[in-house]
Structures are given as C-alpha cells and as structure tokens.
Write a structure and sequence with these properties.
about 120 residues; mainly alpha; Four Helix Bundle (Hemerythrin (Met), subunit A)
Length: about 120
Amino acid sequence: MKEETERWIEKSENDLEHGESSMKLEHYDWAQLAAQQSAEKALKAVLIEKGIGLIKTHDLVMLARKSNAPKEILEKAAMLNSFYKPSRYPDVEIFLEETELISAAKEGLESASLILKWCKQQIKI
C-alpha cells in the first residue's frame, strides 16, 4: 500500500471516530459532516492506490463511480452528498426535528462505515 493511501485511510478513520464522538455530544450536524468527510477520504484513498490520483471534489458519487463501486456504495455516497452543505453552512441548513437529525446522523455514520470498509477491501487492508 502506498504511504499516501495509508494517510488518507487514517484520516478517514479519524473522521468516523470524530462523528461518533459528535453523536455522544449531540452535535448531529458535526456527525453528519464527519461521516461525509470520512467517506470522501476513504474513496480518495482508493483512487490514489489505483493510480488514478487525487481528484479534488466533494462529490462522493463521482468518486465512487471512479472507484468502480457497486450500487450499494453509490447509494450510500449519494445520501452522504446531501450532508455536505447543510452541515457546514447556516444559510443552507435544513431545519429538521431532533429525532430526524439523530436518525440522519446515525444513518450517515453507518453509511460512512460501510464505505470505509469497502474501500479498505479494495486496497486490501
């Protein structure tokens, strides 16, 4: 495994851990952003390892397609794409009931975990 790939996977794991910590603190927007970031970094690691290189985008579906990801991963990537702006910017924030925020954050972290696992399989970790 390339050293650069390893750094991206480590950051992905850290982001996922940060997301789980954010859930405990009831910072659901941060949990969503951490989930999106974890998936983004894991997918970029696959592209780096395959020799495609770093693609500077936040579009997880595009990254997943370039990684030849299966349908399930593409679907999870699409869901996580929806977190990127609302979790970062107050003027784009979507106002949901707390139970919906909790549910979305949990689903995001589960999706990011699944994507990370798939990516590790691709790079044979």
